[in-house]
Amino acid sequence: MTEKTRRTQLYKVHRQTAKLTVFAGFEMPLLYKGIIPEHLAVRNSVGIFDISHMGRVIIQGVDSERFLNYAITNDVSRLSPNGAQYSVMCNEKGGIIDDFVIYRLENEKFMMVSNATNREKDYNWLVKNAEGFDVKIEDVSDGVAMFAIQGPTAEKTLQKISTADLNKIARFNCGHSRLADVKVFISRTGYTGEDGFEIFIWDASLTKPDNAVKLWNAILEAGKTFGIEPCGLGARDTLRLEAGMCLYGNDIDENTTPLEARLGFVVKFQKDNFIGKEVLLKQKNEGIKRKRVGIQMIEQGIPRPNFEIYNGEGEKIGHITSGTFSPLLKCGIGMAYVPISQAQEGNIVNVKMRNKLAKGKIVSFPFYNAEKYGYKRKTAT
Amino acid sequence: MVKVDGYEVPEGLYYTKDWEWVKVEGDKVRVGLTDYAQKQLREVVYAELPEPGTSVTQKEPYGTVESVKAVSDLVAPVSGTVEEVNEEVQSSPEILNEDPYGKGWLLIIKPSNLQAELANVMDFNQAVEWHKTLIKEG
């Protein structure tokens, strides 16, 4: 039985230039030139990703702020129009339904940008919990194309074709602009650890993708002098992993809480009530028993999901949730949940790789040196 | 050397459907990954190879090769004892991509039953035909 795969506005472009893969039911680019050169382009200069497969839901109405503050863990009352924040929403047990970025478009209008895998689940969850609130919830995913332009020269690249002064858009802020004469909504956000932007092309439907294709090509042209590379999901995964960011389904799911996942900064206990608050507050007061850590390999080998982790005494202490080869560090890196007693930075662990054990150590996020890479870097480009 | 749709298939080698080539060198054989295999894998970042002295069995895995995304088994093309391992592949795995039939060789094996086992692998002409089918099937 084959389920028909979905495509983005850029499918025809990808088919000619990329090696494709199926992700969350979408036929998406896995890589163009190669995961490593694409990854390094983003760390050192700039890359562009088609992320039109992501979920986009508009929540509007007089109760929109009150409703979202009940449904999600972060506090949207802190957002002014054209502001955004990272958040999660949890079930009653404190397990994560999804992680996403929430944008305040207008006073009573918000947009949630979430994982492609959870499109239907998120929409249904929001609708189910909106009873009694005066809000309209609408899934607009299919009518919107979305690109991420990431890397230290992302701003310079887009400024060449932008009517708005992008320097004025601070991290986690957004606004309207025209890029290469295409109307866009642009936000300074991303999933790579680098500075960069995510842009929304409102009028680019699947049947009329012209604006999306035109802008994709215009950005590639504008970025040529900076060595821009189109990047696939392969590099998207290695970049977010190096940055220490979670992938839903691997590193977080309904069996993990934001506190265990070290996403406590998006849980605002000062709020009156929100779904999962009771359990999360209890967990906070009692202390978490395990937490998400980074593991950097000392010995050769690449940690892959589900590989078991042992401490020095030979006790099993967890398993890898995400792992890859780090193109920047040139060694294996991974994430795992381990008991608090084992989670100390510098702790040596053994990762079971097929028939041997390989040494790794617990490290902090991001995996790279934040003075040299990422949006907080100190070196100018 | 012929190219089948961009994939190199050198003459004088034997080939397996597990993407390996075999070159008979006197009473030993040298084995490696085919050009088609390295192009499918792309960017090899790690190879786990056996120690010299290990015995390997035709059609059974003896190691792994990893790209950023994927792990693939290396499957022995003939049975025998590993005589030599290409250390350079372990320190610079990218040579598997750059020179799969040359610098990127994997093992030298002292075969235990070569003549009989060569009947189970493809010769050059069969390999060319097989590559054509692979490409047609996409």
Keywords, please?
heterodimer, A: 381 residues, alpha+beta, Gyrase A, domain 2, Alpha-Beta Plaits, Elongation Factor Tu (Ef-tu), domain 3, 8 helices, globular, B: 138 residues, OB fold (Dihydrolipoamide Acetyltransferase, E2P), three-stranded antiparallel sheet, 5 helices, 25% helix
The CATH first-level class of the largest domain in chain A comes to Alpha Beta
CATH hierarchy class name of chain B: Mainly Beta
What fraction of the residues of chain A are assigned to beta strands by DSSP? Answer: 25-35%
What is the succession of H and E elements of chain A?
HEEHEEHEEEHEEHEEEHEHHEEEEEE
For this structure, the quaternary state is: heterodimer
> Helicity level of chain B, as a percent range?
10-25%
Low-confidence stretches of chain B: none
- Beta-strand content estimate of chain B: 35-45%
Kindly name the structural category of chain B: alpha+beta
In DSSP terms, counting alpha (H) and pi (I) runs of 4 or more, how many helices of chain A? 8
Question: What's the β-strand tally of chain A?
Answer: 19
Break the fold down into its secondary structure elements and pairings.
The complex is a heterodimer of chains A (381) and B (138).
Chain A lengths: L10 H7 L1 E5 L2 E6 L3 H10 L2 E4 L4 E6 L3 H8 L11 E8 L5 E11 L2 E6 L4 H11 L6 E4 L5 E6 L3 H6 L14 E6 L2 E6 L8 E6 L8 H13 L6 E3 L1 H10 L34 H10 L3 E8 L10 E3 L5 E11 L4 E9 L8 E6 L2 E8 L18
Parallel strand pairs in A: 3-13
Antiparallel strand pairs in A: 1-2, 3-9, 4-7, 4-8, 5-6, 6-7, 9-12, 10-11, 11-12, 14-17, 14-19, 15-16, 15-18, 16-17, 18-19
Chain B lengths: L1 E3 L2 E3 L4 E2 L4 E6 L2 E6 L1 H7 L2 E5 L6 E2 L4 E7 L3 E5 L4 E6 L1 H5 L3 H4 L8 E5 L2 H4 L6 H14 L1
Antiparallel strand pairs in B: 1-2, 3-4, 4-5, 5-11, 6-8, 7-10, 8-9, 10-11
